[in-house]
Design goal:
alpha+beta; binds S-adenosylmethionine; Rossmann fold; Archaeosine Trna-guanine Transglycosylase, Chain: A, domain 4; 9-stranded mixed sheet
Length: 491
């Protein structure tokens, strides 16, 4: 059925597209493209469905919708993240480097965050923030599913984030809440919720979020601002306003970024565009990036990369400064009071010596990290994390496990950061056993195995099982179990 678009939208946007208007409208009647990003932390050699590269993202691929990769055990294993193809351009533009401190300020459900983490390779720190608690929980689950060891997940207003992390980050992405015009083909709710008043409201909110992002960015840092709307008020005009009110920033030409270089070899098929010409100065329109659904295989998107003047500070100085920050927020602390005693680490050490191989080496950010107990929960906090007092934090680095009476129970999050060769016992499951495991069933293992075992499928980790007498007791978290995995209709 043809889409019925709001009359105000049609009237306002037609002049922006000129001779391309008909092609733009026709894009609403053509099928949309589907994408996924492969996860370097869970490196499955081959995926069981055909893929085609997305030109603007190194690990991005198109898939055929009928293949339903969201209903495959490899999805639960974190082998990939399903992401709208145009949305992958944002982190390509941000270009985070291993060792950096990076913030995703409006992060749920985690498309940009999981992409940033993949490019950091476990080195440096990702702080992912989401203002709404339910969405922050989904974000946190996705961070865990993708086996990301060096992330904090916060559930804060951008104002509280700014007061807690002043001038802290090397790179920040503001993937702003917006009027969502670029999602009209994909999502009818975006059409129903759209109005010109909402465009104006979104623009005001975006200005506030950008002010906070500026406060959090180091001198010399990079800020990428993106939306999934065509509204110039939220796109080029927002960048114009930001540059006028923040003279210490310059706009980076997207053609001269790694995104532009990547595309240079395949200019025709990429279909990436500059900003709106004629309405805004060349300085802005020639440097910002637009993705139009009639020009490429993806939905509508806008992105701009801004560089702050100055020289970045050493990471150690930044941590000291942030640790001394007093947060005025009365936010809840992390569940389970922080244990002031020096954590007794023997339990984890014993676990590690018994069940993990010496090849198990925490990621660079964790190698210099600190262990902290919150109640009986033991966390490994990446090296550059400052004090988190007063901040609502859902995930503090890597959850190693729980201290029980006479034993240590490893966390699901720990399993997700491991590869099969990290564990002394890892079971390479068949497809059928992987499905049974994900439903919470017991599966078989060699009779001689005893204790904690990594359950793997196609080289990716699903979770823990505990071996006894040839059977693996299922330790896949109850909240993640889904029934019907063996049903071919649901595959
Ligand atoms: C475009 S979405 C982010 C998508 C995400 N970056 C991803 O790639 O998966 C914008 C996010 O901003 C959040 N948001 C809404 N109002 C906000 C506000 N006032 N301050 C900060 N974030 C807000 C929304 O809940 C939403 O999760």
């Amino acid at each position: 059925m043809p889409k019925i678009l709001p009359p105000d939208f049609l009237r306002e946007r037609q002049p922006l597209l000129g001779s391309e208007w008909e092609a733009f409208l026709q894009s609403y009647d053509t099928p949309r493209a589907y994408g996924l990003r492969r996860n370097p932390f869970q490196d499955c050699k081959t995926l069981p469905f055909p893929l085609e590269p997305v030109p603007w993202a190194a690990d991005g691929y198109y898939f055929r919708p009928g293949d339903r990769p969201g209903r495959h055990p490899l999805h639960e294993a974190g082998a990939y993240y399903i992401q709208e193809p145009s949305a992958m351009s944002v982190v390509s533009l941000l270009d985070p480097q291993p060792g950096e401190l990076v913030c995703d300020l409006c992060a749920a459900p985690g498309g940009k965050s999981t992409h940033i983490a993949a490019l950091l390779h476990g080195d440096g720190l990702l702080v992912s923030n989401e203002i709404f608690p339910n969405r922050a929980r989904i974000l946190s689950q996705n961070i865990e599913r993708m086996g990301i060891p060096n992330a904090l997940v916060c559930n804060e207003s951008t104002e509280n984030m700014a007061s807690h992390f002043p001038m802290f980050f090397h790179r920040i992405v503001v993937d702003a809440p917006c009027s969502g015009e670029g999602m009209f083909r994909k999502d009818d709710t975006a059409i129903h919720e759209w109005s010109l008043d909402n465009v104006a409201l979104c623009a005001d909110r975006q200005k506030m979020i950008l002010e906070h992002a500026d406060q959090m960015l180091q001198p010399g840092g990079v800020l990428v601002y993106s939306t999934c709307t065509f509204a110039p008020e939220e796109d080029e005009a927002m960048i114009q306003w930001f540059l006028e009110t923040h003279p210490d920033y310059t706009l980076t030409d997207w053609h001269k970024t790694s995104l532009g270089r990547q595309v240079a070899g395949i200019p025709e098929c990429a279909g990436l565009s500059d900003g709106l010409a004629g309405i805004f100065s060349d300085e802005i329109s020639s440097k910002v990036l637009r993705l139009w659904p009639h020009k490429l295989r993806g939905e509508g998107h806008f992105a701009a990369r801004l560089q702050k003047s100055g020289t970045p500070l050493p990471v150690s100085l930044l941590c000291d400064a942030a640790a001394g920050t007093k947060n005025s927020s009365k936010g809840k602390k992390k569940k389970g009071k922080q244990n002031k005693k020096k954590p007794e680490l023997t339990d984890f050490t014993e676990f590690k010596d018994t069940y993990l191989n010496t090849s198990f080496s925490p990621y660079p950010a964790l190698a210099g990290g600190r262990m902290e107990l919150f109640g009986d929960e033991l966390y490994l906090i990446p090296a550059p994390v400052p004090s988190l007092a007063g901040l609502k934090v859902l995930r503090t680095g890597l959850h190693l496990g729980t201290r029980k009476k006479n034993r240590f129970e490893p966390a699901h999050a720990l399993a997700k950061t491991l590869v099969p060769t990290d564990a002394q016992q890892s079971l390479d499951c068949s497809y059928e056993d992987a499905c049974r495991y994900l439903q919470g069933e017991t599966i078989s293992c060699p009779d001689t195995w005893k204790g904690w075992t990594l359950v793997c499928y196609e080289g990716c980790t699903l979770g823990w099982g505990k071996a006894r007498n040839g059977l693996l007791k299922n330790h896949y978290p109850k909240g993640l179990r889904i029934q019907g995995w063996n049903d071919p209709e649901k595959k």
